[in-house]
């Protein structure tokens, strides 16, 4: 009994000793292991430009209005805060806040200078605007929703009465965030990002606006976010985005040319990653170095951006473009400012009765499409293809009263296809010159068409208004998707061509006939030729691409039967036309018309 | 000890008193059980061996168990720490990369990035990250940057100010805390913190890793170790008990057998099992017992033969002696008619015949005692007349040798159930001896009694007894100085017979003496025949005796115990031991 008791006591002591002595404690002392990572000092502290503050304009009311229209520029999350700094305290609640992706800036183009009228104790400001679009938080400029053509608000002095230096406050502000096109140009950069077409054979550019306030190290993140968000709506018919539910995990990080992108991407195989690499390489065109693509933290691919760009060139374009024109019914080569002359791709036997021509190099061949004038005054299309000189032209069966210059679309191995506007309708044609009408989603008279270099986008002028649309190549036949109307200050547009991946050359009227360079969303306009004298009937451009070409960005147009060229603007004279016999004396020589580039 | 009986109505003191009572009771019980424990410890070899085994093995096993359990725990903890540290450093690196995109804490997307980073580091699905909570705090930017945790939990209580200070100071630090984060129950968390450098300053990354698994594993390991340890200790105890039992049981049997043997049961033997050491012990023991039995039986037989011989010789001598006596009486009666030399011889013959007769009588008496034929003929008797009678009867002898006999007898009758013949013989013997050895100094007879016993002491102031002679005096035919001729009529058997008489009564006969101080004999008898004696009403050592140590303190008690070389040691009692328990120099019982 006693022995058992003793044993029990001993066992108890043992259990307690062991249990109390060596369990995981409830609380331990703080144990310092090592120094934590320290901040590296070699980070670039570069920071983008921000729009001016309210006080920046001082007592200059006009500058204040200008700044007010730029206030929303910058990172979208804080756009409301920035704009509200311009608004009088009492009126700040009049501007309902939106959060996250709902933040959208109404981009307007001032059609006139702001009208500032002094009132009793404030100033009344009236701005006349053209609604250009809605700049969403993801950098996409979508067609405008608002229809207002004027906005009115008041300026009240921020300081005591009589002291104007304190600047102004906006009273009765518009209930949207306004951003002038000027501010868009100044505080944003238009960035081209690339999506694969539906067949995943060709990259198609899309456009986004990146705020200058975004520091350069966040650029990669932004671009990848744009890519995961998918293409613009109008492009969706011909372009495919990344696989559904693809998301970037946190930010892309890196420095010194080594970047890391972590994605959640369903169905990511080697081919997809390769394509993503190409997409990234071109979308981050000015970036060098490598991007490591991780899928759910697993490193899957390291992309050398420059190498990727080199292996997957964007637009195969002939660097040595040649100029041609139609002179006295025949295609002739043009030499401007000492450029080398090209050989005429059409044999002299068939080189007659030509009104306009569309030339295009496909591999080693040259595709030729010409509009020929018939004896009955009607016009018809003739098409030919040859590695050297086109001996015969296949003439199409249909005749039209009036046909625009035919254009070839890049079709990548499919049957060559071209577009031509005839009698106000859009037709496509093949290498047999058979024309078929292309259905458009909008009624109206088509006057001009221009395919982009990638072959998946079109610029159209319908009823004097500029439109863009995507082409779907399913079945090797181009189908044109819903057209997006571009808001331009030019009216009565007559001719259009692509001057770069995301830029268009448009000829129209801004009071006077003019040629403007417009972005593909119509937001930014640059007048190139304020006054062409008369209406431009014909416009041909050599698009600027990644390939360095002396002709990049050059264009030629024809107005009132006279051909002109850019860089510098000059009239194309007869003596610049090659292989022409001087006209007999006394006969007034004709003018070269319908200038065109062969590339 | 305060025993003040002052009546005190103060409740506190009463309570104190009660408490004291309680304490006294408890301590008493404790002392008793301790004493019992001590007794058990002293008595049982098995308890000692088992206890020592248990204590030693407990200490040893406990120490090892502690070491092992501690090691297991620290390994588990270290593994967890290494794991979390790796995750934390990777996480901090990742977070630093993520935040390097921002140069101001106010940047709008920073908060989003913090959320994303925390979710990413936590691994997304809270169900699958086994309770790990990741938190990012920005103590430097309160109000600007919101702290985030994933999965959502209130981690503030788990980050101690010390840990926060350590991390804010730019250190990777850890701490174990207990709290509740995601589950319903409190759990131990390993809190690991690291600074995350950013371009606008420092934010802090914390990992909260539940140690539930480690805790459970450690507890299981601990339980296993403890169970093993306890089992081992118990097993060792059991083993020790078994082994001891194997040894102790034969020893106990041997002890019991030896006790029985010593009690006279000479035919007791041990069982011999097997051929081991214990069997050898038992066999040897049995051998010894057999030898002893044989010796004792032989001695008993010899003793019986001797006694028989004595008795027979006495009887056989009596018949011729009677004849010789009658002839001698005749000669003695006619001595006046003889020649004076013959007459003197006749007188001598008569005297020696008296002695011879006396000797024969004593021898017969002794042999009656030896043969066990002596019977007590007890009746209630007043001892006072017996004393007077003896004194009167010896008065002549005393007068002849010039010794005064003093009596110290109570006036009241001293009644006891005794055999008056035997008591008178004893007293006569004692007083005769005292007178004989009194050397002219008075002899004092004292009679005393109490409820249970009566006692008689006879004190003389003769040469006394040398140390050790107190017992020898009762031996048959013993004499103090063998060279000294027997002058007086002692046979050398008187005290032996007296001792046998005292024994027959169930009483004591004891002697005390010191050289030069005379001697004192004490006879103690139970007041009722058959009672057992415990004390004597009179003291053995006379009050006037000079003791080697200066005598007993006034009113104090004396202790008499065994001294060196078989002598009696007399000294003051070490404590106020009741007389019943006082060690006593007993002569007979």
Name some characteristics of this structure.
heterodimer; A: 599 residues; mainly beta; Nuclear Transport Factor 2, Chain: A; Neuraminidase; 3 domains; seven-stranded mixed beta sheet; five-stranded mixed beta sheet; 7 helices; globular; B: 589 residues; alpha+beta; Beta-Lactamase; Helix Hairpins; Heat Shock Protein 90; 11 helices; 14 strands; disordered C terminus
- At the third CATH level, what is the topology name of the largest domain in chain A? Neuraminidase
Unreliable segments of 5+ consecutive residues of chain B: 1-7, 574-589
Poorly predicted spans of chain A: none
Envelope shape of chain B: rod-shaped
Largest interface: A-B, 50 and 73 residues
Subcellular location (chain B): Cell membrane
GO molecular function (chain B): ATP binding; phosphorelay sensor kinase activity
GO cellular component, one term (chain B): plasma membrane
Transmembrane segments (chain B): 49-69, 225-248
Short description, anyone?
The complex is a heterodimer of chains A (599) and B (589). By secondary structure, chain A is mostly beta strands.
Please provide a written account of the structure.
- The complex is a heterodimer of chains A (599) and B (589).
- Chain A has 599 residues and is mainly beta.
- Chain A folds into 3 domains: 54-187, Nuclear Transport Factor 2, Chain: A (Roll); 190-311, no CATH class; 322-598, Neuraminidase, CATH 2.120.10.
- In chain A, the strands form 9 sheets. In chain A, strands 2, 3, 4, 5, 6, 7 and 8 form a 7-stranded mixed sheet that branches. In chain A, strands 12, 13, 14, 15 and 16 form a 5-stranded mixed sheet that branches. In chain A, strands 27, 28, 29, 30 and 31 form a 5-stranded antiparallel sheet that branches.
- In chain A, α2 (61-70) packs across α4 and α6 (270-283) packs across α7.
- Chain A is globular, with a radius of gyration of 32 Å.
- The model of chain A has no long low-confidence stretch (mean pLDDT 86).
- In chain B, strands 2-1-5-4-3 form a 5-stranded antiparallel sheet.
- Chain B starts with 10 loop residues before the first helix and ends in a 17-residue tail after the last strand.
- Chain B is built from 11 helices and 14 strands.
- The model of chain B is unreliable at 1-7 and 574-589 (pLDDT under 50).
- Chain B is an alpha+beta fold and 589 residues long.
């Amino acid at each position: 009994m006693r022995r058992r008791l003793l044993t029990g006591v001993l066992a108890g002591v043992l259990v307690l000793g062991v249990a109390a002595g060596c369990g995981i404690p409830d609380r331990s002392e703080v144990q310092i292991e090592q120094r934590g990572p320290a901040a590296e000092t070699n980070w670039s502290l570069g920071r983008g430009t921000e729009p001016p503050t309210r006080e920046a304009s001082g007592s200059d009311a006009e500058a204040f209005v200008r700044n007010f229209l730029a206030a929303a520029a910058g990172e979208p999350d804080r756009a409301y805060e920035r704009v509200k700094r311009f608004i009088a305290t009492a009126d700040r609640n009049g501007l309902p806040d939106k959060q996250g992706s709902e933040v959208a800036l109404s981009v307007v183009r001032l059609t006139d200078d702001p009208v500032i009228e002094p009132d009793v104790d404030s100033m009344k400001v009236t701005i006349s605007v053209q609604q250009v679009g809605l700049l969403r938080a993801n950098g996409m400029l979508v067609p405008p929703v608002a229809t207002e053509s004027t906005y009115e608000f008041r300026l009240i002095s921020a300081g005591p009465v009589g002291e104007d230096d304190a600047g102004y406050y906006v009273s009765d502000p518009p209930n949207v965030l306004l951003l002038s096109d000027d501010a868009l140009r100044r505080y944003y950069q238009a960035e081209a990002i690339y999506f694969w077409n539906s067949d995943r054979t060709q990259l198609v550019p899309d456009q986004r606006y990146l705020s200058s306030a975004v520091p350069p190290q966040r650029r990669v993140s932004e671009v990848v976010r744009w890519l995961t968000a998918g293409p613009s709506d109008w492009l969706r018919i011909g372009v495919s985005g990344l696989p559904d539910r693809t998301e970037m995990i946190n930010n892309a990080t890196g420095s010194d040319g080594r970047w890391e992108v972590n994605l959640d991407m369903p169905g990511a195989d080697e081919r997809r990653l390769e394509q993503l690499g190409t997409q990234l390489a071109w979308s981050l065109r000015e970036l060098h170095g490598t991007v490591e693509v991780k899928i759910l933290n697993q490193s899957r691919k390291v992309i050398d951006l420059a190498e990727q760009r080199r292996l997957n060139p964007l637009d195969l374009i002939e660097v040595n473009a040649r100029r041609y024109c139609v002179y006295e019914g025949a295609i002739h080569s043009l030499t401007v400012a000492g450029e080398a002359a090209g050989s005429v791709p059409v044999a002299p036997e068939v080189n007659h009765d030509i009104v306009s021509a569309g030339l295009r190099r496909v591999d080693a061949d040259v595709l030729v499409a010409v509009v020929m004038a018939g004896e009955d005054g009607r016009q018809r299309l003739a098409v030919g293809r040859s590695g050297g000189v086109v001996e015969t032209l296949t003439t199409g069966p249909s005749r039209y009263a009036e046909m625009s210059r035919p254009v070839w679309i890049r079709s990548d191995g499919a049957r060559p296809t071209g577009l031509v506007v005839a009698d106000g309708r859009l037709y496509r044609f093949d290498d047999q010159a058979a024309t078929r009408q292309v259905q458009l989603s909008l009624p109206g008279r088509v006057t001009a068409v221009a395919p982009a270099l990638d072959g998946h986008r079109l610029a159209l002028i319908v009823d004097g208004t500029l439109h863009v649309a995507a082409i779907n190549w399913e079945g090797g036949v181009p189908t044109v998707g819903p057209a997006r109307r571009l808001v331009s200050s030019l009216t009565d547009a007559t001719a259009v061509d692509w001057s770069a991946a995301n830029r268009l050359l448009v000829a129209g009227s801004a009071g006077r006939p003019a040629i403007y360079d417009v972005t593909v969303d119509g937001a930014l306009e640059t007048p190139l030729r304020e006054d062409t004298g008369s209406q431009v009937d014909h416009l041909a451009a050599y698009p600027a691409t990644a390939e360095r070409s002396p002709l990049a960005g050059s264009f030629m147009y024809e107005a009132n039967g006279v051909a002109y060229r850019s860089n510098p603007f000059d009239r194309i004279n007869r003596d610049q036309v090659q292989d022409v016999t001087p006209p007999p004396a006394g006969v007034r020589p004709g003018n070269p018309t319908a200038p065109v580039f062969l590339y | 000890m305060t025993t003040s009986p002052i009546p005190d109505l103060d409740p506190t003191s009463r309570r104190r008193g009660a408490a004291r009572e309680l304490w006294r009771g408890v301590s008493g019980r404790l002392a008793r059980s301790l004493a019992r424990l001590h007794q058990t410890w002293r008595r049982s070899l098995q308890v000692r061996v088992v206890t020592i085994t248990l204590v030693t093995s407990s200490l040893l096993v406990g120490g090892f168990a502690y070491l092992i359990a501690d090691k297991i725990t620290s390994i588990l903890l270290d593994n967890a720490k290494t794991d979390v540290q790796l995750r934390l450093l990777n996480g901090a690196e990742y977070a630093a990369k993520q935040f390097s995109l921002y140069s101001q804490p106010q940047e709008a997307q920073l908060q989003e990035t913090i959320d994303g980073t925390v979710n990413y580091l936590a691994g997304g699905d809270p169900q699958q990250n086994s309770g790990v909570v990741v938190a990012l705090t920005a103590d430097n930017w309160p109000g600007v940057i919101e702290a985030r945790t994933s999965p959502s939990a209130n981690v503030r209580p788990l980050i101690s100010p010390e840990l926060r200070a350590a991390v804010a100071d730019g250190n990777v630090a850890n701490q174990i805390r207990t709290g509740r984060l995601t589950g319903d129950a409190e759990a131990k968390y390993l809190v690991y913190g690291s600074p995350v450098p950013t371009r606008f300053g420092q934010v802090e990354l914390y990992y909260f890793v539940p140690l539930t698994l480690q805790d459970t594993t450690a507890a299981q390991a601990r339980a296993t170790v403890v169970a093993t340890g306890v089992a081992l200790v118990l097993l060792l105890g059991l083993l020790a008990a078994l082994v001891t039992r194997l040894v102790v049981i034969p020893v106990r049997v041997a002890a019991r057998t030896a006790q029985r043997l010593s009690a006279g049961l000479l035919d007791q033997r041990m069982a011999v099992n097997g051929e081991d050491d214990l069997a050898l012990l038992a066999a040897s023991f049995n051998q010894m017992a057999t030898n002893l039995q044989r010796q004792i039986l032989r001695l008993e037989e010899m003793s019986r033969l001797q006694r028989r011989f004595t008795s027979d010789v006495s009887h056989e001598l009596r018949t011729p002696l009677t004849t010789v006596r009658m002839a001698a009486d005749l000669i003695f009666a006619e001595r006046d008619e003889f020649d004076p030399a013959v007459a003197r011889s006749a007188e001598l013959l008569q005297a020696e015949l008296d002695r011879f007769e006396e000797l024969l009588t004593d021898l017969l008496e002794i042999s009656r005692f030896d043969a066990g034929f002596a019977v007590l003929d007890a009746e209630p008797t007043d001892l006072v007349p017996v004393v007077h009678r003896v004194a009167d009867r010896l008065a002549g002898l005393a007068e002849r040798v010039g010794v005064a006999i003093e009596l110290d007898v109570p006036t009241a009758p001293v009644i006891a159930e005794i055999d008056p013949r035997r008591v008178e013989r004893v007293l006569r013997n004692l007083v005769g001896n005292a007178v004989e050895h009194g050397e002219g100094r008075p002899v004092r007879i004292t009679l005393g009694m109490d409820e249970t016993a009566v006692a008689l002491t006879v004190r003389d102031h003769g040469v006394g007894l040398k140390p050790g002679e107190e017992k020898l005096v009762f031996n048959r035919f013993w004499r103090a100085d063998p060279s000294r001729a027997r002058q007086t009529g002692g046979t050398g058997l008187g005290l032996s017979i007296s001792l046998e008489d005292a024994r027959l009564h169930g009483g004591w006969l004891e002697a005390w003496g010191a050289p030069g101080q005379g001697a004192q004999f004490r006879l103690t008898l139970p007041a009722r025949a058959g009672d057992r004696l415990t004390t004597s009403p009179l003291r053995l050592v006379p009050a006037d005796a000079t003791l080697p140590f200066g005598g007993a303190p006034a009113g104090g008690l004396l202790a008499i115990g065994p001294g060196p070389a078989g002598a009696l040691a007399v000294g003051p009692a070490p404590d106020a031991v009741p007389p019943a328990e006082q060690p006593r120099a007993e002569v007979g019982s």
